[in-house]
């Protein structure tokens, strides 16, 4: 090694030491987070990308899942030889969350796909069924979406099968390329203020191909709504704020199209009577 090379390395090391030992460290701000003490010895830890979940791999072949407050929310069994863990994916961006566990001695790598129930705000939203039903089905819908119109028989069927166990909640998610979806949503919300949301809902879907401002107002008259109050509510900031809140709730839940349905916070991936019934039965079993 030449003298010039040795001198260069010495200078680099000296700069590094100065940086490490300099006064910048005195400006570090820190705050203690949640403290978790698993019953089993922890081997490795990983965080979800949004920081909402903590995965702790412990001795005995288990992954413990904790929330941001340090509360245990789930346990996943894995091979007892696994001693390393990492997390990938971001559910809120539509990328399914996964954890990867590795056994250093065996060289085995295993990937586990995860699904989590979402907490969806349903306060004040119109619903069918018992308010305290153990299973809550949340539907994000658009009155100009033809697929949404075809969900109605599916919902009616599940209500007949589980009359006391299921509550169906309607959430508005008007799509930007549907010209009259927002006016229709606002109209049903104004009708809700007069106790006639579901009647307006049914008539809009029945006349979906004819939706226009004129048809919306005609439905309001057919239902004998107080038109003065109806018109006033349509212009109210409160109604528009409620609609925007529904849209935000959908976006936070990862909704990208309609209809999107959740059963106790779990996404219904295939809209069929069999799949919906299965998810309701699984929710009841839990």
- What distance separates the N and C termini? 69 Å
Give helix and strand order, one letter per element, not per position.
HEEEEEEEEEHHEHHHHHEEH
CATH first level of the largest domain: Alpha Beta
Tell me the helix content. Answer: 25-40%
Give me the CATH fold name of the largest domain: Glutaredoxin
Q: What's the overall geometry? A: elongated
**Averaged pLDDT, please?**
89
What is the CA-atom radius of gyration, in angstroms? Answer: 27 Å
Strand order of the largest sheet: 8-10-9-11-12
Based on the coordinates given, report the CATH architecture of the largest domain.
Answer: 3-Layer(aba) Sandwich
Structural class: alpha+beta
Count the beta strands. 12
How many alpha or pi helices? 9
Could you give a short account of the major beta sheet? Answer: 5 strands, mixed
Low-confidence stretches: 1-20
Q: Oligomeric form of this entry?
A: single chain
Question: What is the total number of structural domains?
Answer: 2
Q: Name the CATH superfamily classification of the largest domain.
A: Glutaredoxin
Beta-strand percentage range: 15-25%
């Amino acid at each position: 090694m030449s003298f010039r090379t040795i001198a260069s390395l010495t200078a680099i090391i000296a700069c590094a030491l100065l940086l490490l030992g300099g006064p910048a460290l005195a400006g570090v701000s820190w705050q203690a987070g949640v403290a978790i003490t698993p019953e089993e010895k922890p081997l490795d830890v990983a965080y979800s990308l949004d920081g909402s979940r903590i995965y702790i791999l412990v001795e005995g072949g288990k992954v413990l899942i904790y929330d941001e407050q340090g509360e245990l929310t789930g346990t996943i069994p894995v091979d007892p030889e696994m001693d390393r863990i990492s997390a990938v994916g971001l559910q809120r961006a539509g990328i399914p969350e996964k954890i990867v566990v590795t056994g250093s001695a065996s060289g085995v790598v295993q990937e586990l796909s995860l699904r989590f129930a979402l907490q969806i705000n349903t306060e004040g939203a119109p619903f069918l069924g018992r308010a305290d039903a153990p299973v809550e089905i949340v539907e994000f819908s658009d009155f100009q979406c033809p697929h949404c119109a075809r969900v109605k028989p599916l919902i009616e069927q599940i209500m007949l099968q589980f009359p006391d166990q299921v509550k169906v909640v309607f959430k508005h998610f008007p799509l930007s390329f549907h010209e009259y979806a927002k006016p229709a949503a606002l109209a049903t919300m104004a009708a809700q203020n007069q106790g006639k949301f579901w009647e307006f809902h049914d008539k809009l879907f029945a006349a979906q191909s004819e939706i226009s401002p004129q048809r919306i107002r005609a439905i309001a008259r057919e239902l004998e709504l107080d038109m003065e109050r109806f018109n006033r509510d349509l212009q109210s900031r409160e109604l528009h704020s409620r609609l925007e809140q529904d849209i935000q709730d959908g976006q936070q839940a990862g909704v990208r199209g309609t209809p999107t349905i959740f059963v106790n916070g779990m996404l219904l991936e295939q809209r069929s009577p069999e799949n919906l019934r299965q998810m309701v039965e699984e929710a009841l079993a839990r």
